[in-house]
Amino acid sequence: MTKAKKAKNSDADKKPKKSQKTQKNQPFIVKLFYLCLYSGLGLAIVTVFGLWLYAMELNRRYQLDDEAMGGALWELPSRVYARPLELYVGKPLNLALGYQRTATALAANSGR
Description:
By secondary structure, the protein is mostly helical. It has one domain. The protein contains five helices and no strands. It has helices spanning about 5-15, 20-25, 30-60, 65-70, 105-110. The longest helix has about 35 residues, at about 30-60. The chain is elongated and about 110 Å long. The N and C termini lie far apart (about 100 Å).
């Protein structure tokens, strides 16, 4: 190689690449923003993966499928703590329970 080519190559080595130059000139707040952004994305990915693993462990441990949820668990007897009451349009209510007619209630029903 000649001296001219060596000088040209050494000048090219001293100049920083464009991506390195722009990265060094970024303000601190921009670098901090990107650090927080990438850290948050990484944390979100790790959290979703952890929740997925936890869901797989629960599925393995309890083996919850459609047949298990539709079985004897839902066949327990129920208790009803009220009397049967038929409601339909135009049927008068028994006021023996302590209900009172008010002007606002009558006004609300007038829009039939």
